[in-house]
Amino acid sequence: MTLDYTQMDQETASDTAIPRRSLTMAVADRLRDQIMRGEIPEGAQLRQDAIATQYQVSRIPVREALRQLDAEGLIEIVHNRGAIVPALSPEDIEELFSIRALLEPEVLKLSIPHLTKEDFSEAEAVLQTYVQELKHEEHVSAWGRLNWQFHSILYSRANQPRFMAIIRNVNNSGERYTRLQLYLTHGMKRANEEHHQILELCRNREIAPACKLLRQHIHFAGESLKQALERKRAAAQGESAQGDSKNGDQPSKS
Amino acid sequence: MTLDYTQMDQETASDTAIPRRSLTMAVADRLRDQIMRGEIPEGAQLRQDAIATQYQVSRIPVREALRQLDAEGLIEIVHNRGAIVPALSPEDIEELFSIRALLEPEVLKLSIPHLTKEDFSEAEAVLQTYVQELKHEEHVSAWGRLNWQFHSILYSRANQPRFMAIIRNVNNSGERYTRLQLYLTHGMKRANEEHHQILELCRNREIAPACKLLRQHIHFAGESLKQALERKRAAAQGESAQGDSKNGDQPSKS
DNA sequence: CTGCCGGATATAACATGCGATATAGTAAGT
DNA sequence: ACTTACTATATCGCATGTTATATCCGGCAG
Predict the structure, then answer these.
(1) SS3 B76
(2) pLDDT in tens, B7-16
(3) Which residues of B touch A73 (CB under 8 A)?
(4) A1, A22, A96 member nearest B162 (Cβ)
(5) To 5 degrees, how large is the angle CA B167–CA B48–CA B18?
(6) Is A17:A24 a contact under the CB 8 Å cutoff?
(7) B70 vs A161: CB contact, 8 Å cut-off?
(8) Closest Cα partner for B225 from B183, B196, B193, B173?
(9) What's the farthest any 2 CA atoms get from each other in chain B?
(10) Residues 121-150 of chain A in contact with strand D via CB under 7 angstroms
């Protein structure tokens, strides 16, 4: 996977202009970010022309970016019918978190022995930022990123790039639902406490307990998210057939 | 006419969507197959123009197919410099099989309760074909496919598409090295015996033993492949050119 | 003789245009 | 009035042409 991990947030502001480097990559990053933040809601169909004109590029980079995202599992491309952001079923959520619960403890196990003090303080800083952001409800989308940052720091010393690529993709696929978890504030609180506990166990190099707690942590997060999703779907069932306007910040066309 | 839409020979019944093939998909399948069979050797650089003229298509489908394969982890695209088939290090092999050893038993556990008699007989047939093919050394490339067929049949009832997608990709990434395992004939024999044992355990619905044996089976296969690869690399160290048997029809610059 | 710089060439990245295909809307027939 | 078939439009897919960038080679200077 040719993801450019080095430079992530350099072009966050510009809406239409794409900076240098590969246009395809830039468009893919942009769309991925928008999907993960929920700005492109589930079920939305991504039309190549609209995206191309929006980003001031031709349709070729857009097409390739869409194919990239399709391979990452973020969208689905159907022949001659465009790409859509699939709505994840509770079963999908369960499966995603099962994969996480399986892979991430294994990577953590390999990483813990090589974690440095700098890693720990960095993770600590992320957790503090996390607490700060929790106070502002409007920063929901930041939570998912901070969550991933914390986890990925802990895994960073495992030196298992393929594991990490898979884990990253799986996390991305579900991240656009993290805003749902805001509804269960106690769930977030619990997650935060577990994060601190996990970090402490890693500091003490208690590998097995840390991995076990991590597995439980992921499992619980998946369960609560699954339930939140089921509630949301049940609530959306009663409403109109077309009016899912609660996430009305969709950009696909204007 | 090098490219035929109509012939969709592969695809075991695991895929949900079996839509019409686009040129991009066809090219991607072709290239993926060639890479997995080893017809495109490691280190070869895939030039878009050459592939396009070879398959009688334009460069656009080729580009998109390459990007697809890149996202699958089969090749690496470097900006403005084309795509290459990466040479996997022994550590890569180890990581790939670690992932398999982690994911596949979990899927098998979920699948076993729902396996039918038809599944068992189908798997049995694959194993018999496998034994047949082993006698002909020239059919090495068939072994990888049969191996995957057998495994995927056992997992097919788990109904975990994302697990399966990951497992499939991980298997694909390493499959072009299965020919190396031919060198250790006893390893193949052992693999065959283990396959039969696993199948028997699945028949008796002995979930835990089956999963445990599967894990060991994958682990052993990875270890032996890793050792074979190390031997090959050590041998290739002396002679800069190693004669790969069949790559006469490939766009490799020389 | 060697190392650096600049142009030529090859190759990938991107844009535009055209043909193909699916969906929707309308009209006609039962 | 309902269903079906046909047409029109919007969108995707592929081809060809153009631009940008990296590599390679040769000349010039030190």
Answers:
(1) strand
(2) 333 333 333 4
(3) 162, 165
(4) A96
(5) 40
(6) no
(7) no
(8) B183
(9) 55
(10) none
